[in-house]
Amino acid sequence: MSDDVKTPQSDLDSLVKSNTGCEKTIEMQLSEDGQILRLAMLGEMLASVAHELNTPIGFISANLSNLSKFIDKIFQLLNAYEHYASINSSNSEKIEIDKIKKEINYDYLKARIPEMMVRSMKASDSLKTLIRDVKISSRADSSKAEPSDINEALESAVHIIMSEYKSKVKINKDYDKLPLVECYIGKLNQVFLNILSNSCEAIEGTGEITVRTRHIKETVTIEITDTGSGMSDKVLEKIFLPFFTTKAIGYGTGLGLSISHRIIEQHGGTLSADSKLGQGTKFTIKLPICQKQQI
Ligand SMILES: Nc1ncnc2c1ncn2[C@@H]1O[C@H](COP(=O)(O)OP(=O)(O)OP(=O)(O)O)[C@@H](O)[C@H]1O
Ligand SMILES: [Mg+2]
């Protein structure tokens, strides 16, 4: 029997091989879809938590702002009392007033309260911004692509990521004046968050990320460049494959970029990467401003 004659066993082997491959592909697809579904559910949950937080933080912020005005007035009154008491009080009254002042640490309170108010107002402002950014970044998509502000979405994604990495990563922004882009902005937010978090994770010690947008003819280009570890050519050629990760078990599923790639392709755009080991990485997204057909 010649070598190229197929035996029932070799037929069976190739059948098993092709079926196994097929099952794997389906399994991978299901897993990737499951991940997309989980991310969508997480996005919805985040959006509703952000919505619920909006009202109480609004109260806190408004009350703090009023309180800070009232406290200034109360201190004005106290200063007037102090002045009046220093002229008109008897010695025993002065001793009694000084005793109370000492007990409540009056001088310390007087010096610290305005500063505490300013800090609380700043903290409530950052909370308001964070809630706004979470709302934008987890925005549920409507059933059709809608004209959206890409700079605004990037800005929110940057804010969210930077709340975790601000001590090690400096962010540079170079936004062009962009037209509205017809897209599923919730999905694009997911892409921006994936790429930005990869960049932050690739930075050991301290480093920089530059987010740049450009409008050229019918296309909007977004570049996210980091000064992180970079990648070898071998790694670079696999990054868009589902489940490809160089991260330790439990630290990465290897789905971030494959999902992002798919989302950008669904928008009729491209997602590409350039990288130099030891120097850094640049991801480039090109998006058409208008969709040729409904996606
Ligand atoms: N900015 C970057 N710098 C260096 N390597 C990167 C960068 N972005 C991606 N990579 C490489 O590409 C791999 C795949 O990235 P991807 O986002 O798909 O998965 P992951 O980050 O490993 O896991 P996750 O699914 O949690 O995102 C990473 O494990 C890493 O090796
Ligand atoms: Mg990732």
Structural account:
By secondary structure, the chain is of the alpha+beta class. The chain has two domains: 134 residues; 145 residues, Histidine kinase-like ATPase, C-terminal domain (Heat Shock Protein 90, 2-Layer Sandwich), CATH 3.30.565. Helix content is 59%, strand content 16%. The strands form two sheets. It has a five-stranded mixed sheet with strand order 2-4-5-7-6. A two-stranded antiparallel sheet has the order 1-3. Helix 3 packs across helix 4. The chain starts with 7 loop residues before the first helix and ends in a 7-residue tail after the last strand. The structure holds adenosine-5'-triphosphate and magnesium ion. Adenosine-5'-triphosphate binds next to helix 5 and helix 7. It catalyses: ATP + protein L-histidine = ADP + protein N-phospho-L-histidine. It is an enzyme of class 2 (transferase). Keywords: ATP-binding, Kinase, Nucleotide-binding, Phosphoprotein, Transferase, Two-component regulatory system. This is histidine kinase. Its EC number is 2.7.13.3.
